[in-house]
Amino acid sequence: MHPAYLPYNRGQYPNVWSIIEGTPSGVTLHYMDEGIDTGAIIAQKKVPVEMVDTGETLYRKLEQASLALFSESWPLVRAGKVPRIPQSGEIGTYHRTDDVEAIDEIDLDRAYVARDLINVLRARTFPPYKGAYFTANGKRVYMRLGLEYGEEGLTHER
After folding, report:
1. Looking at CB atoms within 10 Å, which of 27, 67, 94, 106 has the fewest?
2. What is the tens place of the pLDDT at every residue in 73-115?
3. Measured between alpha carbons, how far apart are the two ends of the chain, in Å?
């Protein structure tokens, strides 16, 4: 079981990359082969990423979807009647563990597209892990986001 909608987000931190890169999110039950998350697919389930999701909340949703997919698939696995759907080598994404280090440091003097910066902060919000940070006066300052939907139809009148 891999907490990604393969062939997207092979490797580490698939919850982070679905938020940052906008790749499909989900879970995949697959065969093991010599590659990293490249084995033939048995079953998959998509998991929507909402604007209020953080790395942590998406991870929890993926955990629940993994349990559900495994429960649904187990009778076929046990009976030896599961499909073997090859993955395309032409599409997909892969990330190593240290790829998150490249996005964790926020440069206070760099211009960011707001959506991209918010997505990094969302994706790297996963307590107790420290995640994204900036450096001020020689010290790292770590950031976490708390997100929630507002009331629909709420107007702001003065």
Report:
1. 67
2. 999 999 999 999 999 878 899 999 999 999 999 999 999 999 9
3. 53
Residue at token pair 């490797």: 11
Cβ atoms of residues 124 and 134 within 8 Å: no
* pTM of the predicted model as reported, rounded to 2 decimal places: 0.91
With helix as H, strand as E and coil as C, how does the chain read? CECCCCCCCEECCHHHHHHHHCCCCEEEEECCCCCCCCCCEEEEEECCCCCCCCHHHHHHHHHHHHHHHHHHHHHHHHHCCCCCECCCCCCCCEECCCHHHHHHECCCCCCCCHHHHHHHHHHCCCCCCCCCEEEECCEEEECCCCCCCCCCCCCCCC
Q: How many CA atoms does the CB half-sphere of 29 hold within 13 Å?
A: 20
CA angle 18, 53, 11 (to 5 degrees): 30
C-alpha–C-alpha distance, residues 3 and 5, integer Å: 7
Asked if 26 and 18 count as a contact pair (C-beta separation under 8 A), the reply is no
Enumerate the β-bridge partners of residue 105: 133
User: Which fold, 10-95?
Assistant: Rossmann fold (3.40.50)
